[in-house]
User: What shape does this take?
Amino acid sequence: MALLSEIDQDTVHLGARFVGAEQDEDGVTARFTDGREERGALLLGCDGINSVVRQHVLDAAEPIYAGFVSWRNTVVQEPVIVPKGEVQLHLGVGKAIVLFPCSERQLSMDCFVRGPAGGTIPPGQVKETLLSTFASFSDTVQRALEATEEANFGRGDLYERDPGPTWFKGRIVLLGDSIHPTTPFVGQGAGAAMEDGITLAKELALTRGLDHADDVQAALSSYEWRRRDRAAWIVGSAGRRGKMFGLTNPLAASGRNFVLSKLPTRVLRKEMERAVFYE
Assistant: This one.
């Protein structure tokens, strides 16, 4: 809502499903399921992990399943379970849970479990199943799960994709999850999409105008170059961290816990600063 409030509301049109586009040197025509067409100087594919726009830029680039199922919820903290300003990561064998306050009263919860994509838990049994799955975890985890509302759980299979070298084709360009979907273990998925938008806006602002095809191509090339390594680092770091969090061998998980307990704070802080304080 904060982002939406900064733009002209008349430019936002909902309830339209994009199905394809044609482009020429001067612009792009986007087509929608209701038969409507829209013409623009650029088509920005910000349409997420199952991007349709991506098909116009890359021939074969589907995201890869990362091996985790995620269950998310937000609970009201009464009394406080995790203090504001504190983030907790609880690790088990093939599972993990992250707790972080969104405000004084709201606590966000992400439960991650190793498992196949596409599975389901019967309606009305999610909370009970997760309480059983995380039964060996701390009292804090139990209190957080007990405070959840069954109907508020959201399920998602986690996917990832290395962004690769190609981010645009002609006047069609990809941003966010359409080009570099990531697992959430670095916490920079939405942040990386915003970084893409800022970088692209800066590059386009340096052109003489979107009607100058050469300038537009130079801007898109620069955007691609500036974002490629950063996005690849986020996807790669999240993937490596996910493998560590999701260890299914009890002995290996015990070794992981020992190593993490001995890591100096400065090492953890350096990694966090690289993610959060970029530019």
User: Anything to note?
Assistant: Helices lie at 126-133, 139-146, 189-205, 213-245, 250-262, 265-276.
